[in-house]
Amino acid sequence: MADYAWLLSPPALFILGLCIGSFLNVVIHRLPLMMERQWLGDAAAQLAESEAVQRASGLAKADADKLATAAEALNKKLEAQPALTLAKPRSRCPHCGHQLAWHENVPLLGWLRLGGRCAKCKAPISKRYPLIELSTGLLFAALSWRFGAQPTTLLWCGFAATLLALAAIDWDTTLLPDSLNQPLLWAGLFVAHLGWTVPMHISLAGAMLGFLSLWTVYWVFKLATGKEGMGYGDFKLLAALGAWLGWKMILPIVLGASVIGALVGIGMKMSSSLREGRYVPFGPFLAGGGFVVLFAGAERVMGWLGWA
Question: How far is Cα 292 from Cα 211, in angstroms, rounded to an integer?
Answer without folding.
Answer: 20
